[in-house]
């Protein structure tokens, strides 16, 4: 994860990755086959790493309170945030091996946010007039964008930015 986060996918060979992580090229090829399969394993691992923690957080606090807490946590894992940002940028190209995975990941994320917003509405914590589809798209874009801003300027308070937007959605 760290090697892809620091150097991206396109700038590395499987041999360079093996050297960077201190294993032989042969061992890496034996376990993953090629760079594309290694990338797929890294992305899946990234998605799985905190899935349970986030699910519990969202269940306990609801989306509007949990998102700023997630952003506070994300500020403690800059390498993973950089990996996400670099992979999303590189995977815009339809020929990139992670393109379909990233498109699916983004769709799953937006769908989950929309579902959580619906839960917020049912719990009476969301303004009645909020368009759930639009708000989900805005939140996903805000999260991805503020993380990119933070990578460039660590003084950006990601949690505060997301908290402010969440408060605007909240039923007063």
Automatic annotation (TrEMBL):
User: Which InterPro entries does this one have?
Assistant: DNA-bd_HTH_TetR-type_CS, Homeodomain-like_sf, HTH_TetR, Tet_transcr_reg_TetR-rel_C_sf
Q: Does the keyword Membrane apply?
A: no
Q: Where is the HTH tetR-type domain?
A: 1-50
**Is this entry keyworded Transcription regulation?**
yes
- Its name, as the record gives it, is TetR/AcrR family transcriptional regulator
Q: List the taxonomic lineage.
A: Bacteria, Bacillati, Actinomycetota, Actinomycetes, Actinomycetales
DNA-binding positions are 13-32
Keyword field: DNA-binding, Transcription, Transcription regulation
């Amino acid at each position: 994860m760290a090697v892809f986060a620091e150097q991206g996918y396109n700038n590395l060979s499987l041999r360079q990755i093996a050297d960077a992580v201190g294993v032989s090229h042969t061992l890496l090829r034996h376990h993953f086959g090629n760079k594309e399969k290694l990338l797929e394993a890294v992305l899946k691992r990234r998605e799985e790493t905190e899935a349970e923690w986030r699910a519990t957080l969202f269940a306990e606090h609801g989306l509007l309170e949990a998102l700023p807490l997630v952003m506070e946590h994300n500020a403690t894992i800059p390498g993973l945030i950089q990996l996400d940002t670099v992979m999303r940028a590189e995977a815009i190209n339809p020929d990139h091996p992670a393109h379909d995975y990233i498109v699916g990941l983004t769709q799953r994320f937006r769908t989950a946010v929309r579902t959580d917003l619906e839960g917020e509405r049912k719990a009476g914590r969301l303004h009645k007039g909020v368009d759930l589809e639009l708000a989900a798209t805005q939140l996903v874009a805000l999260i991805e964008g503020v993380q990119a801003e933070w990578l460039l300027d660590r003084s950006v308070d990601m949690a505060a930015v997301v908290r402010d937007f969440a408060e605007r959605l909240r039923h007063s």
